[in-house]
Write a structure and sequence with these properties.
With 224 residues, the protein is an alpha+beta fold. The chain is 28% helix and 13% strand. It is rod-shaped.
Length: 224
């Protein structure tokens, strides 16, 4: 009997639930009332504002062409230069060379009763003249100096050994032109003198010899 009661209760509950579902799902839906248009009005939209026209930038004005002024042409003045007059080497007597003879040694002891004979010196002036002649006759003027056409006299002090070779040379008095002084010094150092004679002392002697440096003449080359 209790089981039949429970089953009845469940059945009643199912019936009630079905009825509720049917009332919700199967109930008629309300219809929407149609919308009636009674009046239509055309609305004119405002025209869009046109964009501003682009700014026209005028092209830059062309700059005036700069025409360079011609440089002033200097008139060329050619000065005719006269060729230096031909200089001929003339053998002329040179001034007498100054000869430095060595002083006799001074002895601390009393001199002997008889003085020693002085060394022979009569050939010294003649030897000095020969030195001057050799230097004048064997000149070799550099082209740079010959092109200048200038000359000068240089006083050169030359020390010579008894066998004739040059020991040293130096400039005592300049000509005022360095190239002339250098040429005279080279001539003195490269000169070849003879040996001392029997009339000269067997010692190194120093001579002051004037050396006249002159540009060579071009007459011989023009005549060919």
């Amino acid at each position: 009997m209790p089981r039949a009661t429970a089953a009845s209760i469940v059945l009643v509950a199912l019936i009630v639930a079905f009825c509720y579902w049917a009332s919700v799902v199967l109930a008629p839906k309300p219809q929407l009332a149609p919308i009636q248009v009674t009046q239509a009005q055309l609305v004119t939209l405002p025209k869009p504002t046109p964009p501003p026209p682009p700014k026209v930038i005028p092209p830059p004005k062309p700059l005036p062409a700069l025409i360079p002024k011609p440089l002033p042409v200097q008139s060329r003045i050619v000065v005719a230069t006269k060729p230096p007059p031909p200089v001929h080497h003339v053998y002329k007597p040179a001034p007498r060379p100054v000869i430095h003879t060595p002083a006799p040694p001074v002895s601390a002891v009393h001199p002997p009763p008889q003085a020693a004979p002085a060394p022979p010196s009569s050939g010294i002036p003649v030897y000095g003249q020969e030195m001057h002649s050799i230097l004048e006759a064997n000149q070799s003027v550099p082209p740079a100096l010959a092109s200048l056409g200038v000359g000068g006299v240089v006083l050169v002090q030359i020390t010579v050994a008894p066998d004739g070779h040059v020991i040293s040379a130096k400039i005592l008095r300049s000509s005022g032109i360095k190239l002339i002084d250098q040429t005279a010094w080279q001539h003195a150092m490269q000169a070849h003198f003879g040996a001392f004679g029997s009339d000269m002392p067997a010692l190194a002697l120093t001579f002051d010899v004037p050396v006249d440096i002159q540009p060579q003449s071009d007459d011989s080359g023009d005549s060919n």
